[in-house]
Amino acid sequence: ELVERIEAVTRTLTTAEIVARLDAVQVPCGPIYTVPEVFADPQVQHLELRQRIPHPTLGTVDQTGFPWRFSRTPAVIRRHPPLLGEHTDEVLQDLGYTSDQIAAMRQEGAI
């Protein structure tokens, strides 16, 4: 019932109107963006957060960079977004599984 009541009001408002109303009563909030909206955001543009990263199957992808800047240790994106299952073996090994156990799970179709 609560969700229905909230949706009845929010359907009639823009995202900006909802954020303004919540800000006015000190409710922490912010919009949930689509990817294109992220890069259109004035703060993202001002901080120059768009980084173009080479990806092995998608060509070049846009990612948000780090919102902080350190003079002696600049933050750098070193890897592309992972492919599905790209780190499965690494994660399972970190959890204590042996290579043989991982191979058996793969053969059984568990991973």
TrEMBL record:
| Pfam family name, one | CoA_transf_3
Q: What keywords would UniProt list here?
A: Transferase
Alphabetical list of InterPro entries matching this protein: CoA-transferase_III_domain (IPR050483), CoA-Trfase_fam_III (IPR003673), CoA-Trfase_III_dom3_sf (IPR044855), CoA-Trfase_III_dom_1_sf (IPR023606)
**GO terms for molecular function, please?**
CoA-transferase activity
PANTHER family recorded: SUCCINATE--HYDROXYMETHYLGLUTARATE COA-TRANSFERASE
State the name under which the record lists this protein: CoA transferase
Species this chain originates from:
Thermomicrobium roseum
